[in-house]
Design a protein that fits this description.
This protein folds into two domains: 53 residues, Homeodomain-like (Arc Repressor Mutant, subunit A), CATH 1.10.10; 144 residues, Tetracycline Repressor, domain 2. Helix content is 71%, strand content 0%. It is built from ten helices and no strands. It is elongated.
């Protein structure tokens, strides 16, 4: 995505990103047009090309930024942890908070993955694999340190991520439990899952 110089160009780009996210969230990639996006921000359609080349470029950049932010935040959160248990709790906290606060960005990144070109799809999937690898490494290190046991780290990793990611669908700021409370529930539930040594065969039952 090409950035224009100057504060006016930056403000326009941020407005486009915000309006584009709303359109993708409400109408999907197929239902979003650049002409409508330009109208939302109050600029001529031709001016959009000062900021991105086409609709595909816009979608890819949004998804790339979401994954970059998520990876950076999680790495920073894990940096000062001293053992696998601390790392697990930190990772869970990071994931749940991020997916609660950026639920629209996450939903668009998930539902519109299919709308990416083959090359862009491969790039985003590689970033997702990198992020998933952080949790997989934590679980493996926990087994080596005898903090918990599991017999199929890849399946357990995907199970845990699926459990946590769904928080963006149902969590509401005005709900009966605040976000810190939700984080604690997830931390306890996931740690108990690992400590109880759930068999993969039970997950398919």
């Amino acid at each position: 995505m090409t950035r224009t110089t100057g504060s006016r160009g930056d403000r326009t780009l941020k407005a486009l990103q915000s309006a584009g996210l709303e359109r993708l969230y409400k109408h999907g990639f197929a239902g979003m047009t650049l002409r409508e996006l330009a109208a939302d921000v109050g600029i001529q359609a031709g001016s959009l090309y000062n900021h991105f080349t086409n609709k595909q470029d816009f979608l890819f950049c949004l998804m790339h930024q979401v994954m970059t932010d998520l990876i950076d935040v999680s790495k920073a959160k894990l940096e000062n942890t001293k053992n696998p248990r601390q790392a697990l709790l930190a990772f869970v906290e990071c994931h749940v908070i991020f997916h609660s606060e950026y639920r629209k960005e996450v939903q668009v990144s998930t539902t519109e993955l299919r709308s990416l070109t083959r090359d862009n799809y491969a790039k985003i999937v590689a970033m997702r694999d990198e992020y998933e690898g952080q949790l997989l490494n934590i679980l493996d290190q926990g087994c080596l340190g005898e903090y918990w046991t599991h017999n199929d780290p890849k399946i357990v990793t995907k199970l845990i991520l699926g459990m946590m990611t769904s928080v963006g669908i149902w969590y509401r700021d005005d709900g009966p439990v605040d976000l810190n409370g939700i984080v604690k529930i997830y931390q306890d539930m996931i740690e108990n899952l690992l400590l109880n040594e759930i068999e993969v065969s039970q997950l398919h039952a």
